[in-house]
Predict the structure of Rho GTPase-activating protein 15.
Amino acid sequence: ENAVTKNILVNLNKEGFLNKTKIADRGKKLRKNWVTSYTVLSGLKLEFYKDAKDQAASNLKSSKLECIDLHGASIEWTNEKSSRKNVFQITTLSGNEFLFQSDADITVQEWFRAIRNTIDSLGTE
Ligand code: I3P
């Protein structure tokens, strides 16, 4: 079983609105700027769009805001890095750090679980 097959088997795809801020770029600290984006977990990566309509038109390069490669990434809950509730951090292999947040408790827990499962399924392959 390769990573893609495993992802299909456990059905990790997920999409919806989530608040996000990048706090470090390749280890270099950035000033916080929280943005609400239409977030898509597509099995191997996280993608961000301005809204759902843009995602449907994702063949248009301009609509995609950013993409996070989850291979080798880590994910953890954090209470110290924001005054907001329900915040988790993703750190990529390249040293980019992102915070994610939603006031909806269940939404955040579902995202955390789905992304962690994706990272685990990608493993070290
Ligand atoms: C930041 C802004 C962020 C806040 C951050 C502030 O100020 O208020 O929303 O993060 O706190 O510095 P500015 O707009 O002047 O950049 P949280 O909402 O996550 O708390 P921080 O400095 O403690 O990270």
Remarks:
- Helices lie at 3-10, 52-56, 105-122.
- Strands lie at 14-25, 28-29, 35-41, 45-49, 64-69, 74-77, 87-91, 97-101.
- Residues 74 and 91 are 5 Å apart (CA to CA).
- The longest strand covers residues 14-25.
